[in-house]
Design a protein that fits this description.
169 residues; 8-stranded mixed beta sheet; binds coenzyme A
């Protein structure tokens, strides 16, 4: 299965909102307008993962923050169609975000539900460590979040933002 990672377009927000309903049913899933607002943020970078038919099977976004001297980044979201989990697509998306963050340098932060073992494992594999607990962070569920941090590292050695990759079928 070939997966293409490329920048998100405004036309993609309908499919993103559809996936959000499935992936985050308990935690105020983002609607189309939330994605449009994120896309408009000058410091945000959003990407999609598409299969060979062009169907979007995942999405992710990061904010590039701080200053040139003290850059930092914050992963805002990452999600993969449940029918395509465990094929390496989440890894491709996260690595593309980290490549983008690595261009500027600085640490990368994120929040993740304390009960989200799949995501925590994915993040730990990419150098993130738990540095704090935020009680009742997610609403309306009231679920707690871990704050995770990845120290400043170089980006991944891929050339450019658009990549094709083979994942398991
Ligand atoms: C987290 C998520 C994006 C991972 O996407 P994915 O495409 O399934 O991830 P990958 O196939 O690249 O998995 C990479 C690694 O993460 C870990 N992992 C992924 N799913 C896992 C699971 N269900 N249980 C345990 N570990 C898991 C594994 O270490 C896996 O490597 P392996 O398959 O070689 O063992 C996906 O589960 C998802 O969309 N979850 C719902 C949305 C979400 O929670 N997003 C994160 C919000 S902070």
């Amino acid at each position: 299965m070939t997966i293409r990672i490329e920048p998100m377009r405004p036309a993609d927000v309908t499919r993103c909102a559809e996936l959000e309903q499935v992936l985050f049913p308990e935690d105020d899933p983002w609607h189309e307008v939330s994605f449009l607002s994120e896309l408009a943020g000058p410091h945000n970078r959003y990407i999609t993962a598409r299969d060979a038919d062009g169907r979007m099977v995942g999405y992710a976004g990061i904010a590039l923050l701080g200053t040139a001297d003290h850059p930092e980044a914050e992963v805002h979201t990452i999600g993969v169609d449940p029918a395509e989990h465990r094929r390496g697509i989440g890894t491709l998306l996260l690595e593309a975000l980290l490549l983008e963050a690595g261009r500027r340098g600085g640490p990368v932060f994120l929040e993740v539900r304390t009960d989200n073992a799949p995501a925590i494992t994915l993040y730990e594999k990419h150098g993130f460590h738990i540095i704090g607990l935020r009680k009742n962070y997610y609403q309306p569920s009231g679920a707690d979040a871990y704050t995770m941090r990845r120290p400043a590292m170089a980006g991944f050695p891929q050339d450019g933002f658009t990549t094709d990759a083979e994942v398991s079928s």
